[in-house]
Amino acid sequence: MAKKTSLFECQHCGFTSPKWLGKCVQCNAWESFIELNQAQKEVLNALKKPLPQVQKSVSIAEIEHEEVVKFSSTQSELDIVLGGGIAKGGLYLVGGSPGVGKSTLLLKVASGLAKNQQKVLYVSGEESLSQIKMRATRLDCIEKELYLLNEINWPVIKA
Question: Quick check: 118 and 72 in contact, CB under 8 A?
Fold first, then answer.
């Protein structure tokens, strides 16, 4: 069994220590350390990694045109908005007020892709799996290749 490693953080200045300290050596605050949980440690470690090398700006006239492979989202109106479909390797952020249909639209897209024999992972950090299943049933979006995951931790999702 792996040894548990602890990490403590000063709530005043953010200084971290592998041991609890009564007084922060950076800001001199007393009784300000709390133990971080595993998720908090992962975020803190990610923030400590060096930033990627800074890119220089390039004139738009110098950029070579590349063909982007796109495929249908199965929702024709969305394909129009996306300029012809979903770009392979693309990342899309869908925003809007509560109740406007973001989850419904994306569930219909996921279901349509799964219906075309593509494996689809639908990840929700807000709704439970049973809530998603109820919506999918109502929308007739139950597909064998549509998988659901309720998770907010990116390393867990990525695995």
Answer: no
Please indicate, yes or no, if residue 3 is contained in any of the structural domains: no
Dump pLDDT digits (tens) for 3-48.
667 788 888 888 888 899 999 999 999 998 988 876 677 776 677 7
Global confidence as pTM: 0.60
Give the count of beta carbons closer than 10 Å to the beta carbon of residue 147: 13
Does 57 map to a domain?
no
DSSP characters for 98-112? TTSSHHHHHHHHHHH
Are 82 and 37 in a shared domain?
no
Does residue 60 lie in a domain region? no
Tokens of 146: 């549509």
**What's the whole-number mean pLDDT along residues 144-150?**
95
**Contact criterion met (CB below 8 Å) for 88 and 68:** yes
